[in-house]
C-alpha cells in the first residue's frame, strides 16, 4: 500500500529535495521517521508493510505486492523496518537503514530547523541518544521481551530472557526520566523516537505517566504537534493524551 504526501514548500526547495520513500509498519518503531517526515514538510511516499510471520520480526508488503524475500533482497537485508529509499530524478535510490542513520539523515535535509542539534557536538549528542535507544531500549529491552529467540534457544532460555527484559526497560525509562529533567529544550529528533517507546511502555502495561512524570509531560507536548497527530492518524494507532 503506497501513500504519497505533497507538502507546501518553496520552488527551490522542492527542486532540491530528494525522492524519499519510507518502508514502515503501523505502530512499529518506524512511526518515528514517519512523524519526522511530516514535521519536515517534504514530499515523501510511504509503503506499508505487515508481519510476514506469526512471531513478527519479518515483513512483506501489506498489499501483497512483494514478499519478505524480495524485501530482504532489494531493500533491507535484515528484513526489518524502517528502511528509507533516497533517490533523485537522475540517480537510483540509495537505501538507508538503522534508526540513528535514518533520523539524522532526514533532519539534515532541513538544517535550519536544528532538529538534530545545532553544531557538531549537539548533533553528536543526538546520535548518542538515538544509538542508545535503538541498541539498548529497543534491541535488548523490547527485543528481549518480544523476540527472545534472538537471545536464547529453547523454551527455558527464552523464558529467562523475557523475565529479565522488563528490568532493562525500566532502567532505560529511569535514565530517560533523569536526562529529560536535565536537558529540556525544544522538541527534537530524539523526542519523536522517545514517543514510540512511551507508547510501547503503555502497551505492555507500565504506568508511564505515574512512574515517569517528566517523560510523560514531554510526550504530551510532542503529541500536540500536528506532525505527530497526522502520522498517528495515518497509522490508526490512536493518541495517548486525547
Automatic annotation (TrEMBL):
It comes from the Eukaryota. Residues 17-114 form the GST N-terminal domain. SUPFAM superfamilies: GST C-terminal domain-like (SSF47616), Thioredoxin-like (SSF52833). It holds the Pfam family GST_N_2. CDD domains: GST_N_Beta. Belongs to the GST superfamily. This is GST N-terminal domain-containing protein. It comes from Lasiosphaeria hispida.
Amino acid at each position: 500500500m503506497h501513500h504519497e504526501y505533497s507538502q507546501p514548500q518553496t520552488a527551490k526547495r522542492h527542486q532540491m529535495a530528494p525522492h524519499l520513500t519510507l518502508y514502515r509498519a503501523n505502530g512499529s518503531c518506524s512511526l518515528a521517521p514517519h512523524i519526522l517526515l511530516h514535521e519536515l514538510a517534504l514530499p515523501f511516499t510511504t509503503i506499508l508493510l505487515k508481519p510476514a510471520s506469526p512471531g513478527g520480526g519479518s515483513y512483506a508488503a501489506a498489499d501483497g505486492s512483494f514478499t519478505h524475500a524480495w524485501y530482504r533482497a532489494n531493500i533491507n537485508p535484515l528484513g526489518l523496518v524502517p528502511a528509507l529509499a533516497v533517490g533523485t530524478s537522475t540517480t537510483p535510490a540509495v537505501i538507508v537503514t538503522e534508526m540513528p542513520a535514518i533520523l539524522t539523515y532526514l533532519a539534515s535535509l532541513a538544517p535550519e530547523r536544528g532538529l538534530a542539534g545545532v553544531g557538531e557536538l549537539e548533533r553528536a549528542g543526538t546520535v548518542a541518544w538515538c544509538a542508545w535507544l535503538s541498541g539498548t531500549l529497543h534491541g535488548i529491552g523490547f527485543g528481549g521481551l518480544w523476540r527472545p529467540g534472538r537471545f536464547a534457544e529453547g523454551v527455558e532460555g527464552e523464558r529467562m530472557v523475557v523475565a529479565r527484559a522488563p528490568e532493562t526497560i525500566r532502567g532505560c525509562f529511569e535514565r530517560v526520566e533523569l536526562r529529560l529533567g536535565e536537558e529540556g529544550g525544544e522538541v527534537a529528533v530524539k523526542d519523536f523516537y522517545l514517543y514510540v517507546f512511551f507508547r510501547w511502555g503503555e502497551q505492555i502495561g507500565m504506568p508511564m505517566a505515574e512512574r515517569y512524570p517528566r517523560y510523560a509531560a514531554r510526550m504530551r507536548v510532542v503529541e500536540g504537534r500536528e506532525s505527530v497527530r497526522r502520522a498517528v492518524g495515518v497509522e490508526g494507532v490512536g493518541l495517548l493524551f486525547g
